[in-house]
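User: Run a structure prediction on this.
Assistant: Running it now.
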Amino acid sequence: MSSSSRRQFLQHFGLGSAALCLPACGGRELLGADGRTLSGAPRGLHVSLAGDPYSSRTLTWFTDGLEAAASVIEYDQDIEGLSSAEVRSLPMAMRAEGSAEQTTGIEALTHRATATGLDPERPLRYRVGSAAGWSEVHVLKPTPRDDWSFVHYGDQGTGPLALQLGQALTREDFDLLLLAGDLSYANGDQPIWDTWFDQMEPVLANWPTMAAPGNHEEKDFGGDAFKNRFTHPKPMTHSITGGPEGSSFYSFDYKRVHFLVTTAGALINDGTLPEEIANIELDLSLAAARRAAGEIDFIVVMQHFTIWSDQLGRSPANPSLVALEEDIIVRYGVDLLLVGHDHVYQRSVPMAFGLPNPLGYVQMMVGTGGASVRLFDEDGPQAWSARQFVGIGYARYAVSGRTIRGEFIGAPPLGLEDELRQSVTAPFRSIDSFELRARSPELARAHALPARPPELLLANFDAIARHTRARNARALNSCA
C-alpha cells in the first residue's frame, strides 16, 4: 500500500487528522474519590505486537473499579465496500476473550485480549469491552507489503508541549510507534498514567506501539506500573530461565528489521538486570547470525538512557552500563540505537566508543516528546555528533529495501532563554535527515559471533549495579 493510498485509507474510515484530534481528559459525569472520572467503558486503549507481528494484534485497556468484567475483543477484516458509518455499526464476525488484573496502584482493572488469525494484507476493525461498556470501533491499517515506516521519541508527559506533539503524530503516516521511556511522568501519582493514556488514545489505539521504561517509570512501584499497563513479548531468555515475562525488556521483528528493547538499567531495583544483560547478549548474537544468513537486514536497539550525550550537565556520557552495553552493541554490529532521556535532539555519525567509526552504530537521541526543552553543553558537540536541535519533535524512519531513511520532525521554542524555552508556537518541520544502508554480506558475517557466557558478562556486576544506581539517582535529581 503506497503512502498516498494509506492516507486515503485513514481518511475514508475517519482516521484522518480531524478525527484524531487529542481530547482533554475527562468528559465523564461520575467522579471517584480522587477526582478521577469513572466509567464502565474501556479507556486508555492501545495496540501492541505481543505475538506474531503479522497474524495478531494485542489490545490493552483499563476500566474503573475492581469488579471483574469480561475482557473481550470483537473484530473483523471484511471491510471492503463499507462506508465509515457501516464500519462502526455492523456486527463483527470474530470474538476473543482475554484476561484482567488489578491496575497497579489504583482501583481499576487492566484488560488484555488478542485478535489472532489475521490476514496481514487486510485492515482490521475492532472494539473491546464487555456488557459494562464498549470502546469505539477502531480500524488498523494492513501490514505494508514492501516499504514501511516507524516513529520514535521519548520523554513526553501530559503538558501542553506533549499535547502538541501528540497532535502532530495524528497527521503522520507511519506503521509502528516506538516510545523510548519517561512516558507519563506520574512519578508515583498513578492517576497521571490515566491522563497520559487518555490523551494518547487516539494515537495508541490506531497504531501498534512498543515502549521501553525510563528512569521516571522506576518511581511507579519500581516499574510495576509500566509492566502492568503495557503488553509486550516475553524476552528470549524466558524459555531458558523461566524468569520475567517481559513488558520491560523484549524483542520482536517487523518485516526485515529486528528490534531489541532494553531497560538500560532504568529498573535496576526489580532484580532482573543480570538476566537482561544475558538476554541482550544472546538476542543480539542470534540477530547477527540471522542477518548474516540473509533473514533480516537491520538490527535496532531501543532504550531510554543514552550511551553518549552533549546535553548541558550530562556530557560527555551517562556512565554505568555504557562500557559493557556498548561493547555488546559494537560486537554484534547494531545498526541503530534509539534513545531518549536527554530533552534535546542529537544524531551521531556511525560511531563506537565515543569516536566516529564507519563500522559502528548511529545513535538517535530523541528525548523531545514534550516533557521539557533543554540546552546543549556550551563546549560544543563532540566529534561523533552530526546534528543537534533544541525543541520538541519526533524521528520518522522510512524503510525501503536495504535502506533506512531517517528524518527528525521538530518545532523550536520561542527562544532559548528560560522564560521562553518551554513555549512552542512554530509549526513542525523537517530539521534533519540521514540515510543508513544495510551492512554488506561480508560485514554481516564478521559480526556473526557466538554469544559469550553470562559469567563472563557479569564478572563485574557488583560495580555495574552500583554505578547504575548512582546514575539513576543523578538523573532523577537533575529532573527535580
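The radius of gyration is 21 Å.
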